[in-house]
Every structure is written in structure tokens, then in C-alpha cells.
Write a structure and sequence with these properties.
InterPro entries: T2SS_GspF_dom, T2SS_GspF_sf. This protein is mostly helical and 338 residues long. The protein is 87% helix and 0% strand. The protein has 13 helices and no strands. Helix 11 crosses helix 12 and helix 11 runs antiparallel to helix 13.
């Protein structure tokens, strides 16, 4: 056996021994490292368990997690499933039966208006006398289902906007009352007496519910169902966390008031920045109608071809559909969710 063979065999033995040592030592080192990490983790957990601030922080995190998990289901439950809930959100005191009676009267009135005002030229050339009935039916359906619900939605939107504008001032009243030593119930009563409508009536219902035996979280939860706004939800969350974990209520509500005012300023800024796009969309949407009216005033015979001939009816139908699609697309482009 020559020297080269012995040298190669010795080097191979050394390499194999080093690899085995590294594998065995690596496992021991890894086990020791895991053991050290477990000891450090147990030490930290024991320290956190003995630390009241850490326990309170962990309790707050668990509460926020539960609130986030239930937020999706809560939003689904806030969608009004009947007309009574929509009337309550709009602040109207009429019963659902009265609303349906009003809707029926509106539908019959618009149907009669459409039947009477249907042009005789259209009814004589397009589907005959049945065209007048179809026009009246369209007006009646719009008056029974469309117009009253649209008015109700507008009233709800205006009322929610007023409550949003007044809510930060109501929080400031609660903050000043708590700092001066008044209990939370008394601060809510002050808002129910001193605040303007519609916030006053909502807080009046809250104080009446508390007087009848409801807890403050229950009364505020019903307030959120009547007024499904993010500001009201924030208010409920702050009071829920404060009631569960404790803390400075005046400081928490003061920070919430600042957040609500910042949201209002951001909302107004978005409206200002999008006002140009909204004005352009309104001009573009009104331009075809304005051109049609001007052409009818200057040359009525040229425009009446669209209303007297079947080809003109088809052109009007296609133009109306395209115009409605364009208005829908522009509205989606300029309607910001904030």
C-alpha cells in the first residue's frame, strides 16, 4: 500500500468523523437551543402573568378580536329587512300600513297621470291603445315601489348626516361631565335635553331604556340598530372596552371625539376633491336631454320623427339604455366609499 492510498484513507476518516460530530453536536445544540427558548418563553409568560398591565393588554386584545369577529354578522343584521326598520332609521313615526297606503295612493296617482298624459301620436302608432296601458303601468309601479322608497332613503341619509355632525359635540359633553364628576347616565340625560334634533330624540330613547331597567350596553346597542353609523359603533366599542377592562373614560372619549372630527374633515376633503368630477358627470348626463329639447324647440318636425316612427322608437330605446349605462358607470366612478 503506497503513501497516497494511506493519505486518502486518513483524510476520508477525518471527514467522516467531522460529519458525525457535527450531526450529533448539532442535534444536541438544537435541543439545547429549544430548551433555552422554552425556558425563556415560560419566564416571559410568568412575568406577563404577574404583570397587571400585560394581563389588561391581553384582555383588551381578546375583546377586540371578538368584536372584529362579530362585526360581519352585526353588519348583516343591521340591514333593514322590513319597512318598519327603515321607517325607524328615517325617524318617521308612521306605521308600515300607513306607508303602504301612501305608496298605493302615489302609484295610482302616477298611473292616472301617465295614462292621461300619454301622447296620442305614440299610442296610435306604437302597440295601439295598449301602449297607453303599458305607460300607465310603468308610472304606477314607479309610484308604488320606487318613489316612496327613494324618498325614505333620502330622509334616512339626511338624518344620519345630521347625527354624524352632532355626535362629536355630544362626546365632548360626556367628556366634560365625566371630568367634573358626573356619572355617565347623567351625561346621557344632559345630551337628551340640551342637544338639537335628531340626536336629542335618540339619546332620549337611550335614557328612557336605562330608566326602564336596560343596561347601558343594551341601550347603546339598540341605538346602533336605529342609527347604523361607524361613529356610533366606535362609541359602543369604547364604552364596552372601558366597562370590561377599566381605564380613563374621559380620555378615551376625548380621543374618539378627535377621531370623529378627523373623519368628518377627511369626508369633506374627499367631497371637495371629487366635486369637479361630479359636476362633469352631471353636465355630461344632462347634455343629451338638453340637446333634444333645443332641437325640438328649433325644428320640432325633425325631432318628432323619433316619436312617430318605429325606427325612432328603437333609436330612443337604445339611446336611453346607453345613457342609463353611462350614468351608472359615471356614478360608480365618482361614488367614493368613506
Amino acid at each position: 500500500m503506497d503513501t497516497n492510498t494511506l493519505l486518502i484513507a486518513g483524510l476520508a476518516f477525518v471527514v467522516i468523523a467531522c460529519i458525525g460530530f457535527l450531526l450529533v453536536g448539532g442535534d444536541k445544540n438544537e435541543a439545547a437551543s429549544k430548551r433555552a427558548k422554552q425556558i425563556a418563553a415560560s419566564t416571559r409568560s410568568q412575568g406577563k402573568a404577574n404583570d397587571p398591565m400585560a394581563a389588561r393588554r391581553r384582555q383588551t386584545q381578546d375583546l377586540l378580536k371578538n368584536l372584529r369577529e362579530g362585526e360581519a354578522e352585526k353588519k348583516k343584521s343591521l340591514v333593514p329587512k322590513d319597512i318598519g326598520a327603515r321607517l325607524e332609521q328615517a325617524g318617521m313615526t308612521i306605521s308600515p300600513s300607513m306607508f303602504w297606503i301612501f305608496s298605493a295612493l302615489t302609484g295610482m296617482g302616477l298611473a292616472a297621470f301617465g295614462f292621461i298624459m300619454a301622447p296620442s301620436s305614440v299610442t296610435s302608432t306604437f302597440l295601439g291603445e295598449s301602449a297607453r296601458i303599458l305607460i300607465a303601468a310603468g308610472f304606477g309601479i314607479a309610484g308604488f315601489l320606487g318613489l316612496p322608497r327613494w324618498i325614505l332613503g333620502m330622509m334616512t341619509k339626511v338624518r344620519h348626516q345630521k347625527i354624524t355632525n352632532q355626535f362629536a359635540d355630544a362626546l365632548d359633553i360626556i367628556v366634560r361631565g365625566v371630568k367634573s364628576g358626573l356619572p355617565l347616565n347623567e351625561c346621557l340625560r344632559i345630551i337628551a335635553v340640551e342637544s338639537p334634533e335628531p340626536l336629542r330624540s335618540e339619546f332620549k330613547q337611550i335614557t328612557d331604556g336605562i330608566s326602564m331597567g336596560q343596561s347601558i350596553p343594551q341601550a347603546l346597542q339598540k341605538f346602533y340598530y336605529r342609527v347604523p353609523l361607524q361613529e356610533v359603533n366606535f362609541f359602543n366599542i369604547v364604552l364596552g372596552i372601558q366597562a370590561t377592562t377599566g381605564g380613563n373614560l374621559s380620555e378615551a372619549l376625548g380621543n374618539l371625539s378627535t377621531v370623529i372630527r378627523s373623519r368628518k374633515m377627511l369626508r369633506e376633503k374627499i367631497k371637495a376633491l371629487s366635486s369637479e368630477a361630479k359636476a362633469s358627470a352631471m353636465i355630461i348626463g344632462a347634455l343629451p336631454i338638453a340637446v333634444m329639447v333645443l332641437v325640438y324647440i328649433t325644428t320640432p318636425d325633425y325631432m318628432m320623427e323619433l316619436f312617430l316612427k318605429p325606427t325612432g322608437h328603437l333609436i330612443l330605446l337604445i339611446g336611453g339604455l346607453l345613457m342609463g349605462l353611462g350614468i351608472f358607470i359615471m356614478r360608480r366612478m365618482i361614488n367614493f366609499d368613506f
